[in-house]
Design goal:
With about 120 residues, this protein is an all-alpha fold. It contains eight helices and no strands.
């Protein structure tokens, strides 16, 4: 390992890169990314559900907490891919057919935008 590699700072995680790019507090990451990644026509209903039945989006919140620590697009892709078809995916007509959930495609697009802008 070269001295240059040893002294270079670690890449920022998705949460830190998002906070820096959009001038937002890191604590707001999950909530703001949730809003950006839910299809716009579902956002008002999603906010009501979060307020009254917060467990409805528990899978989505867990994925957002996991991807917040990701430092590369590949990590985000792996974590969101596990969510879509993996062990944590709980089948639901509303989630699967109607699409009332965080969009993996929107999440990857946002991660691509944010992490690409934060790379040296």
């Amino acid at each position: 390992m070269s001295l240059r590699m040893a002294l270079s700072p670690a890449p920022p995680d998705f949460r830190a890169a998002y906070a820096r790019q959009f001038s937002r507090p890191p604590e707001a990451f999950e909530q703001e990314v949730f809003v950006r990644c839910v299809p716009p026509w579902y956002r008002p209903v999603a906010w009501a559900i979060i307020r009254w039945v917060p467990a409805w989006f528990s899978q989505d919140w867990q994925v957002l907490q996991d991807v917040a620590r990701a430092t590369s697009l590949e990590e985000v892709r792996m974590l969101s891919g596990d969510f879509r078809g993996g062990i944590r995916h709980r089948r639901s007509l509303i989630r699967d057919r109607i699409g009332f959930r965080v969009s993996g495609r929107r999440l990857l697009g946002l991660a691509r935008q944010v992490l690409a802008a934060s790379s040296p």
